[in-house]
Amino acid sequence: MQYRKFGKLGIEVSAFGVGCMRFPMIKLEDGTDAVDESVSTPVIRHAIDNGVNYIDTAYVYSNQKNETAVGHALRDGYREKVYLATKLPTWMCNTREDMDKYLDEQLARLETDCIDFYLVHALNKGTWEKIRDLGVREFLDKAKASGKIRYASFSFHDNYDTFIDIIDSYDWDMAQIQFNYMDVDNQATLKGLQYAGKKGIPVVIMEGLLGGKLAKAPANVQELYDAFPEKRSPVEWAFRYICNQPEVGTVLSGVVDMAQCDDNLAIFDRCESGIMTAEEEELIVKVREAYKSRTKVGCTGCRYCVPCPNEVDIPKVFRIWNDLFLYDSKLKGNGGYKRMIAEGHDASKCLECGACEGACPQHIGIMDMLKQADSEMRE
Ligand SMILES: NC(=O)c1ccc[n+]([C@@H]2O[C@H](COP(=O)([O-])OP(=O)(O)OC[C@H]3O[C@@H](n4cnc5c(N)ncnc54)[C@H](OP(=O)(O)O)[C@@H]3O)[C@@H](O)[C@H]2O)c1
After folding, report:
1. Which of 202, 219, 292, 348 is spaced 20 to 30 A from 165 at the CA atom?
2. Count of domains for the chain
3. Whether 342 and 202 share a structural domain
4. Alpha carbon 192 to chain centroid distance?
């Protein structure tokens, strides 16, 4: 396992951090659901036994069951071996007192006295202004002073300007951003990552595989990989690109089973900062263009555009449309869109009120794109 310097904090963190959000769920006998701990516990412990020292969870993951499962996995001496990160459910906080309430609940769920990295979850312009005005900075100062948290951090989903605004608004110990070779100019952007680096703020990466999309190369991308002299899997190319950036602290990957965990353990053993050659960088530029040429609409699934007054699930329509085109699947009459039609959330329900377009950070002409998507996917 490669270890990386964590900005100004003076600690070393494994290049691979286990993101716990995607572990499978099971139904319990009483009808409630839970994380399948027959998967999560062995995977988390195996990762730690093989050098991982960073574990990421959140209050809301897995229908609020994730932290409990992580707490169980970290029993038997594993807690002491890792930096544990979890997140304040920003959008569930309506008062300053709510923040204390959630933190205490999280400490109990995680069976620990101190959370190493405590993140204000999923900040964007709106959620930041709300939580800032509720007093989150004073809350973080107090939680640090009391020893309940070690490092105050935030995770982020918005654009570069908002990222700079937030990162300059408090003495943050860490920032977590969505970053991968497709998001160089999207979300916090490469420029934002470098800005944090200059300030000495370590950056944790999420969605390095775009939630799994970059693990499955479409044909035109696979051709580019196949033509390159060095053979690597799409997953390794994606992680290699991220690790190449010196400002990156650790890369979270939401592994779902032991095979993915083992694969990533091996990959992160080979990925270092500054490792990519000029030829490799050129390859990634071509891969990015190839992906873009197979992308119908640049929706990032941020969901700013919903709820739609007529309940069109706009991000889902665009995700299905993009995926079908990306992988050359049958556009007309496919199952995913058929189900949306049956449920009444499909693109034809658009009333063209335009409320969504003003909210879209990608400035997508949503109403026209919905019409196009519907005509291409409807039987
Ligand atoms: N703070 C926030 O707002 C926020 C938002 C998103 C995520 N996160 C955190 O960041 C973590 C990482 O994000 P992410 O889960 O989106 O990461 P990711 O690495 O982009 O996506 C994980 C998915 O990639 C696929 N994958 C991973 N390793 C693979 C391998 N070796 N071979 C093939 N496929 C592989 C799996 O997809 P399949 O399931 O299709 O196999 C897995 O579910 C999350 O788990 C969560 O802890 C935080």
Report:
1. 292
2. 2
3. no
4. 16
pLDDT digits (tens, 9 = 90+) for 219-267: 899 999 999 999 999 999 999 999 999 999 999 999 999 999 999 999 9
**Residue 209: CB within 6 Å of ligand 1?**
yes
C-alpha closest to that of 49 among 248, 261, 273: 261
- Find out whether 85 and 54 touch, Cβ atoms under 8 Å: yes
- Token pair listed for 194: 């470098």
The pLDDT tens digits of the residues spanning 134-181 come to 999 999 999 999 999 999 999 998 889 999 999 999 999 999 999 999
Residue 57 CA: nearest ligand 1 atom is 47
Token output for 27: 């139904």
Q: Do the Cβ atoms of 314 and 360 come closer than 8 Å?
A: no
Nearest alpha carbon to residue 241 among 177, 181, 176: 181
Task: Please determine, for residue 300, whether its predicted confidence score (pLDDT) is greater than 80.
Answer: no
Q: Distance (Å, rounded) from C-alpha 188 to C-alpha 207?
A: 13
Residue 213 CA, ligand 1 centroid: distance in Å: 9
Residues 280 and 134 in one domain: yes
Q: What separation in Å is there between the alpha carbon of 54 and the centre of ligand 1?
A: 15
Strands, DSSP E only, in 6-111?
12-14, 16-19, 25-27, 33-35, 54-56, 83-88
CB of 135 within 6 A of ligand 1: the answer is no
Q: Domain check: are 274 and 333 in the same one?
A: no
Q: Which atom of ligand 1 is nearest to the CA of 259?
A: 31
- Residue 223 neighbours by CB under 8 Å, 6+ apart: none
Q: Domain range holding 348?
A: 314-377
339-370, pLDDT tens digit by residue?
Answer: 999 999 999 999 999 999 988 867 899 999 99
The pLDDT of residue 359 is 81
Residue 207 Cβ < 6 Å to ligand 1: yes
